[in-house]
# Entry
Amino acid sequence: MVRKFGLPVLTPKPPPPTVDAMRKRLGGRASTEPGAGDAVTFTTPGGVRLTGVVLFVRGDELDVWVDENVVRRTRRAVAAPLDAELPRDLVAIAADARVFAKLSEGQRIRYLDEGRVDEGTLVEKCRFGALVERGDGTIVGLGFRRLWPADATPAREPS
# Structure
């Protein structure tokens, strides 16, 4: 009689992402021009009217958060300031975008990572977040909603 044993299969843990991969995921190294956090409305080439919050501005190019984790690129020429109250779900996004726009490379910041708040140094700003050096020297890539100045408390509970 032969007995079969079911052995657990161990899959190797994937290597941590490289700095280049994190930078790419966060939209590439860039700092925004004034206008981040502004509420705008625009019409897509397909004729759909959208309302959102500007996350990044460079020249005539705007990156606008229009829905949970959905960012659309449009031109400043086709976007107009929102003439109504900003939808409730976008108010916190606008506040976070304004805070992130004011951060600078080399600045001490607080950040939310894996459910805990810690302090580090903003190494490199990207379109939608930043590369941050933790206290142990590790570089992590974090979205703009998880970062704020070290000398300030967040305006809301970080998400």
Remarks:
- Residues 11 and 44 are 44 Å apart (CA to CA).
- Residues 19-149 form one domain.
- The mean pLDDT is 88.
